[in-house]
Amino acid sequence: MATLKVYLLLFTAFFLSGLMQLSMAQGAAAAPATRVIDAKAIDQAIAYLLMFAALFVTYFSH
After folding, report:
1. Single pTM value for the model
2. CA dihedral for 50, 51, 54, 59, sign (positive or negative)
């Protein structure tokens, strides 16, 4: 059971790092010289984090 949690944690870390790299690449392609805060991207990131938190709460409560 402990090894399953370790694998789940590693998978999650790699998955989130991939999402971060993807969002950074899109931001660099859109505006290489300026840093513009995209409200839609922030809202989407918050939604992903909330869904991820709900997944963990559901997983650990069972």
Report:
1. 0.43
2. negative
